[in-house]
Design a protein that fits this description.
Layout (H helix, E strand, L loop, with lengths): L4 E10 L2 E11 L3 E6 L6 H8 L7 E6 L2 E3 L4 H6 L2 E4 L11 H5 L6 E2 L2 E2 L1 H15 L14 H14 L4 E5 L7 H16 L3 E5 L3 H7 L2 E6 L2 E6 L7 H9 L17 E9 L7 E6 L3 E5 L6 H9 L6 E6 L2 E3 L4 H6 L2 E4 L3 H5 L6 H6 L15 H14 L16 H13 L6 E5 L7 H16 L3 E5 L3 H7 L2 E6 L2 E7 L5 H8 L2 H9 L1
Parallel strand pairs: 3-10, 3-11, 6-9, 9-10, 15-20, 15-21, 18-19, 19-20
Antiparallel strand pairs: 1-2, 1-4, 4-5, 7-8, 11-12, 13-14, 13-16, 16-17, 21-22
Length: 505
């Protein structure tokens, strides 16, 4: 019996880079097949070929033993394929209902049946256990909620082949549980699923088989994942052993660099206060929606504060905008790199130099192209950014390499004092994570105060010197590195109702 889906010798070349080279593997009905590899290994490119966004330069795709061609996304969908991409694809000004039924809204005599569409979406969301307002506009929802809309959109198509690319990267614990339940139901229903994740726990919990990619090639396939050790998977992915991904490095800390006192504003339920020392890595943990990103945006001047005071190196300061923050040495790497981090149509070099170029202007007016090329090349080499050249459009890079370019932008600033990193390793592979952690340590060692927001418990425990926990828009506690543990952080992060229910159980 033929596999539901088979990739046969798939190849894809972009200018200056071979993204896929002779990739072959198959996925059976009722199987969740894990796909793992470093950022830029070719995983997302393969899914874009499956989804009809790219055309392969060689090889073929077979479904039920018959060759299929997808010249467009519409052709892929019509063949029963649904691809949920890591970079979300939605229309922000349309409602949840309109996004879920985009291209197939129920209509009669040229008029959309809005009531019928809403009723259909409400019923299906309830069946899936997803809590979303059908009338809410996508642009006003959180990243986690938008991610759930993308997942639900694919499931509503009743596809036979479903591919998910980092689907939990922005989801809360509850939303992740809902997704896992849906995946298991689809598996039991005989669907063929491809699941991409850099979170090893997810791969081992959901997947029955696994294929490893490295540099656009298939390294190996494991038909029975339960028989393979995790260390083996990591080594196959990165081509080397990584014994301790976090590699924590203690260091000397200085005086308080940034003090935030009684800050109030959008997303906070109570005034928030914290401080971070020069050379310190201060972790911020909390469930999705706890207010961590909102607090960082208030500190950075991206949102207007209603009250409170900031003190930088002992002197009061009033950060009114991101530009003002940057000029004082306070920078932010945002959670949503696609919407708020990269300049998608610009090159890698332009994205790296966009802030620091003001220091190198000739006669205060003209760009110093030679200096900018040197800066870009230096950080491409330092952070191992996978790109054919500094002139490559950044939108063509993998998410992890885009993240490295944003980090390079701030590392190129000559007088950094405070670096705020909001989910710096979201959707990034284990090897790239290890490299980014080393960059964080180096920033702290040169005297920067680092604030790292993360929803991954092992990460915040592994990297931080001290951890602040937020719950429902307020700071609920603070723990030193020696005091912190997963149970202790969760106790501070869980809503009061959730804690009571857990204790009663």
């Amino acid at each position: 019996m033929s596999a539901t889906l088979r990739f046969d010798n798939i190849g894809k070349v972009f200018p200056g880079v071979r993204a896929l080279d002779g990739v072959s593997f198959e996925v059976d009905a009722g199987q969740v097949h894990g796909l793992m590899g470093e950022n830029g290994a070719g995983k997302s490119t393969l899914l874009k070929i499956l989804g009809g966004e790219y055309q392969p330069d060689s090889g073929r795709i077979l479904m039920d033993g018959k060759e299929v061609r997808f010249p467009s996304a519409a052709a892929s969908i019509a063949a029963g394929v649904a691809v949920i991409h890591q970079e979300l694809q939605y229309v922000p000004d349309l409602t949840v209902t309109e996004n879920l039924l985009l291209g197939r809204l129920p209509s009669a005599f040229g008029w959309v049946n809005k009531r019928g569409a809403k009723r259909f979406v409400q019923e299906r969301l309830a069946q899936m256990g997803v809590d979303l307002d059908p009338n809410a506009r996508l642009g006003r929802l959180s990243i986690a909620q938008r991610q759930m809309v993308e997942i639900c959109k694919a499931l509503l198509r009743n596809a036979r082949v479903i591919a998910l690319d980092e689907p939990t990267s922005s989801l809360s614990h509850r939303e992740t549980e809902v997704l896992f339940k849906l995946v298991r139901e689809l598996q039991a229903d005989g669907r063929a699923l491809i699941y991409i994740s850099h979170r090893m726990d997810e791969i081992y919990e959901l997947c029955t088989a696994c294929t490893i990619f490295r540099d656009g090639r298939k390294v190996t396939s494991h038909p029975s994942l339960a028989e393979v050790k995790r260390d083996t998977i990591v080594k196959e992915m990165v081509g080397r052993e990584i014994t301790d991904i976090y590699g924590y490095r203690p260091r000397r800390q200085g005086e308080v660099r940034l003090a935030v006192e009684a800050v109030e504003g959008h997303g906070l339920a109570a005034p928030a206060s914290f401080s971070v020392r020069a050379g310190e890595i201060l972790g911020f943990f909390g469930l999705v929606g706890a207010g961590r990103s909102e607090l960082m945006r208030l500190v950075y001047g991206a949102e207007k504060r209603r009250g409170g005071q900031l003190t930088l190196d002992g002197a009061p300061t009033d950060v009114k905008s991101p530009t003002h923050a940057i000029r004082q040495g306070i920078v932010l790497c945002p959670e949503d790199r696609k919407e708020e981090g990269i300049v998608a149509m610009a090159s890698v070099a332009e994205n790296i130099n966009i802030s620091c170029r003001r220091h190198e202007l000739r006669a205060g007016l003209f760009l110093n192209r030679k200096k900018e090329a040197e800066t870009a090349d230096r950080f491409i080499k330092l952070l191992k950014i996978k790109t054919p050249s500094r002139r490559q459009k950044i939108r063509l890079l993998s998410g992890g390499n885009q993240q490295k370019a944003i980090l390079s932008r701030w590392l190129a600033e000559p007088d950094l004092k405070v670096v705020i990193l909001d989910e710096p390793t979201r959707g990034i592979d284990v090897g790239a994570k290890h490299e980014i952690y080393n960059v964080i340590y180096e920033l702290a060692e040169r005297g920067c105060a680092v604030v790292m927001v993360s929803s991954e418990l092992p990460e915040v425990l592994g990297v931080s010197d001290r951890i602040v926990v937020m719950r429902e828009g307020r700071i609920s506690g603070e723990l030193a590195r020696g005091e912190a543990s997963e149970p202790a952080l969760l106790e501070l992060a869980l809503p009061q109702g959730g804690r009571a229910a857990r204790e009663a159980a």
